[in-house]
Hints:
Blueprint: H1 8-26, E1 27-30, E2 33-36, H2 40-49, H3 54-60, H4 67-82, H5 91-96, H6 99-121, H7 126-137, H8 140-151
Amino acid sequence: MSNACNNVICDLSRVFSFEHWARFYFTVERDGKTFLEVPAEVVEECRKKHPDLAPLLDETNNQELTYESSCQNVGAFVCRLYDGERYGPGVVTKTIDSKDFRIELHMFGLWLKGHENYLDEHNVDFDTWLEMFTEWNKLEQVAAYRKRLMESSAADTPAGEKTVH
């Protein structure tokens, strides 16, 4: 995955990763509820580096977070951002339901689980987060595992995990 990605899976994955990055680093507990609280300087930096993604922070910052609201917010955002604009009508929805996208989210979840301790100890910006995931995907073992998943039947393909969304 890179900033120069030009296919729908890459674009959608970038949005899902961005939202997860924000939740990973900027989630706080208040009055027994979970909220997203991204500092203004981080939002501004995202606005400069990722102007297409920053509106997601504007929409969700200082809002209560639940699994359902997170899924709904990201789904609505990717549809507004890409469906019918960058890609034809219905392409986003079809892609989200695809085996390839489920595998991409599964791989992201594996990467996150494997790097969680490091990410907890080092507050990395979104560009570093993406670079780490991209480099991990280049590992021979990771590429081989992804290939096995792609060759497996749909019934054997991992469904999206709650660790990602």
